[in-house]
Amino acid sequence: MQHSSRQFKAPPVILNAQGVPRSVGFELEFSGLTLDQTAEAVQRALGGAVTARTAATREISTPAAGDFTVELDWAFLKREAAADAQAEKHNVWLDRLSDAAAVLVPIEVVCPPLPITDLDRLDDLVGALRDAGAIGTEESLIAAYGVHINAEIPRLDAKTLHAYLRAFALLQWWLVKAHAVDPARDLSPYIALYPEAYAKLLLTQTAPSLDQLAGDYLEHNPSRNHALDLLPLLAELDADRVWRATNDDKIKARPAFHYRLPNCNIEHPDWSLAQSWNVWRVVEALADSEDDLQALGAAFLAADLPILGVRRGAWIKHVDQWLTDRALA
After folding, report:
1. Between the N and C ends of the chain, which has fewer C-beta atoms within 10 Å?
2. pLDDT tens-digit profile of 89-118?
3. Residue 202 domain boundaries
């Protein structure tokens, strides 16, 4: 039997609106390996064939899990390599630059969406990357490596979206503590939390429409650089509206939350993606209970002090106790 820290806990809602298991994708950022070493590790763990798409990208087509992408997370190199590939050219200097950049630029493994009931197949992937020499958040002094979770929304309607947004807004401070977010990542601009004013807006709204939820989000959080990035999901609803508001062509539309808070501690023998998922699952559990959302939301608004707002430390303690009492964590 697996240790509990390696077991992916099931969320309250497993099936999507079509009656099939929801899908979840993961992205892992780390260093210590080259592109080819990373691709070879993925292949060892999951089988399949490796294809060099560009000097900055490898694709591994696995027989059971789908297509995994390995890339250097450096916009300049990806752009130059893509241009070369499109022109059907091969510049050796790009290959050399790619190998050299691996020392300073994070490698990213992008997993395909997997059924929520089948996530444990990623354990072998993490183990293979660790054995190959991948190092993560704690070992990096120059980059804030993390794990991104792309969890499909159960239903793309206003009620469901409002529930998840309220759940995250109420838990966001607690989540930073629960994940033990590395200080370098916490200070970075990439995983900003929602402003307190936006949290209060969400908690005082009654049955907002999808249009209202989208407009409010784009007004308060017009950037991908948030711990819970909603822009891919909003782009699934209305891509033009999102791109007009953000002018960001990197946003990829999909009916999923883009959760960016967890560290990537891949070099630790006892670390697994299940640990990151199981903390996110608390958001899933809270979002599924309207009574709990109402109760915790009322407590948050009641804790709001003039000028000072809600005291973060006190609220984290309140959430800790509340989750324990409700057996949600």
Report:
1. N
2. 445 444 554 554 455 578 999 999 999 999
3. 157-259+273-329
